[in-house]
Amino acid sequence: MQGHWDAVMLAYGLTTATMCVYLGVLLARLRAAERPSRPGDSK
Amino acid sequence: MKLTNVLGLLGVAMYLYGCYDGLFIAPADRFMGDIQRIMYVHVPSAWTTMVCFTISLVAALGWVAGLVRGKAGDGRWGWDDWLESSIEVGVIFGGLLIIQGMIWAKPTWGVYWTWDPRLTTVAVMELMFIAVLALRGFVEEAQRRATWSAVVTLVAYVNVPLVYFSVQWWSSLHQAQSSSDNVDPAMQLPLAINAFAVMFIAIGLMGLRARLAGLTRVALLADVGGEA
To answer: What DSSP string runs through A1-43?
Structure first.
C-alpha cells in the first residue's frame, strides 16, 4: 500500500487542471458574451 | 472587484499552500500510506459539491417564492442565474469527486467502483443534477425554463442528505464523514485549508458563471422581444 505517488499526483493534477480549464472556458465565454455584436455576426 | 472574484483569488492562494502541505508536510497515513493524501482534494471536493447544490436549493426556493407571490421574472432573474451556475459548478466538482474516489479506491479496495451506498447515492445525485442542466438545455422559453429547473432542483436536492448520511444509515465500505474526531491533528490543517480553498474557488467560478448566465439570458430575451 506504500507509495502510489502516481495515483496521488494524478488526482491532484486532474483536480487542478479541471479547475483551470473551466476557468479558462468561462473567461472566454464571458469575453464573447460581453463583446457587442456586429452586423453580420451569427447568433 | 467583486466579492466572488476576491474569494476566488484567495481560494487559489490557499489551494496552492493546502496542496503543498497535504503533499509534502502532512504525515502519510499509518495504514494507507501516501495514497491517503488524495483526501486533501477529495474531501474538499465533496464538501464543495454539497455547498454548490445547497446554493442551488436556495436559488430554487427563491425563484419559487417569487413565483408564488407573482413576482417571478420581475427583477428576480438573479435566482435563476445562480441556480444555473451553482448546479454547473456543483456537477463539475461532483465529477471530480467521483474520479478522485475511483483513483483512491483502486489501491485500497482493489476496484475502481463498487455499488456501495455512498458511491451509489453520489452517482444518483450527480446524474440528477446533470438532468437539471439537460432540462435547461431543452427548454427555450426563459420563464418556463427557470420554473421547471427550480422544481426539478427541489426534487434532486433530496439526494444531498442521502449522500451525507448514507455512511451512517447503511453498512458502507466508505469511511464515515471526516471530522476533527476521526482525522489526526497533523492532517487537519491541510484539510481545513483546502476545504475553504476549494469552496472559495467554487464561489469565484459560480460568480463568473452567474454573470455569463445573466448576459446570455438578456441576449436571448432581447432576441425574442422580451425584457430581462
So the answer is: ----HHHHHHHHHHHHHHHHHHHHHHHHHHHHHHSPPPTT---
Q: List pLDDT tens digits, range B89-102.
A: 999 999 999 999 99
Q: Compute how many other C-beta atoms are within 10 angstroms of the C-beta atom of residue B135.
A: 15
Distance from CA of B69 to the nearest CA of A (A): 32
User: pLDDT tens digits, residue range B171-228?
Assistant: 777 777 777 777 778 888 999 999 999 999 999 999 999 999 999 888 877 777 654 4
Torsion (CA) B219, B223, B226, B228 in degrees, nearest 10: 0
Q: Which of A2, A14, A29 lies at the smallest CB-CB distance from B34?
A: A2
Topology of B3-224 in CATH? Four Helix Bundle (Hemerythrin (Met), subunit A) (1.20.120)
**B76 in reach of chain A (CB within 8 A):** no
Q: Which ipTM value was assigned to this complex?
A: 0.89
